[in-house]
Design a protein that fits this description.
There is one protein chain. By secondary structure, the protein is of the alpha/beta class. The chain has a single domain, classed as Vaccinia Virus protein VP39 (Rossmann fold), CATH 3.40.50.150. The chain contains six helices and nine strands, in the order H-H-E-H-E-H-E-E-H-E-E-E-H-E-E. The protein has helices at residues 4-16, 30-38, 57-63, 76-86, 124-137, 167-173; strands at 46-50, 68-73, 94-97, 109-115, 138-149, 156-157, 160-161, 178-189, 195-205. The longest helix has 14 residues, at 124-137.
């Protein structure tokens, strides 16, 4: 995979489209917040949002008083939009410009959140690399929540093919090193008033590989 190509692609998306012109925008990321709240983490917990872009999740986490938040995205433009929106509130956020496939965690996090990034990885090699990074990047007893298109969801997003999942196939990817906590499906209503069916599953890191 030539990682410079998707970077150019996503930079172009964020440079030419507003938040209300892309399908993944959520005014309130209610499901993601619920999974994080259910983990009952201390406010000092380390939370990373993979492929967070200019998502509003970071705004809500700051509102709830979390002190160590990281947002990773391949698009610097997307992260700059989030930083501009937050102003000085975002000074304490760690903004990471990186392709998840080449990202090397510097320290493990307590909560790994990924909504709509993982499903863009369509080859076995890409998925394997992602899972290696998760195992390094999540602390023992830490949590992972991944949201992907379900089998009833779209086959493409922003013109790119995606890999769709059901509860079993997503769980299979995290069999080694994690235990499943719960899964749910929901319809995301896009800014264009269309429905996209998502699958969310949460897992807890075990104390062995």
């Amino acid at each position: 995979m030539e990682t410079n190509l998707p970077k150019v692609y996503w930079e172009s998306i964020y440079q030419t489209k507003r938040a209300d012109q892309v399908s993944w925008t959520q005014t309130v990321p209610a499901t993601s917040l619920a999974f994080i709240q259910q983990a009952r983490l201390p406010k000092s917990a380390r939370i990373i949002d993979i492929g967070g872009g200019d998502s509003y999740l970071v705004d809500f986490l700051l509102d709830e008083g979390y002190e160590h938040i990281s947002v990773l995205d391949i698009s610097e433009t997307a992260l700059n939009r989030a930083k501009e929106r937050l102003g000085r509130r975002g000074d304490g956020v760690e903004w990471i410009v990186s392709d998840i496939l080449t990202y090397t965690p510097t320290q493990p996090v307590d909560f790994w959140h990924d909504r709509a990034a993982f499903h863009f990885l369509t080859t076995a090699e890409q998925i394997s690399q992602y899972m290696k990074t998760v195992r390094v990047g999540v602390s023992y007893n830490g949590y992972v929540t991944i949201g992907t298109f379900s089998e009833n969801g779209p086959e493409k997003c922003s013109g790119l093919p995606v890999r769709r999942y059901n509860e079993q196939t997503l769980t299979d990817e995290l069999t080694r090193g994690f235990r499943k906590l719960r899964c749910l499906t929901e319809d995301h209503v896009t800014p264009f008033q269309t429905n996209q069916n998502f699958l969310f599953c949460s897992f807890q890191r075990l104390e062995q590989n």
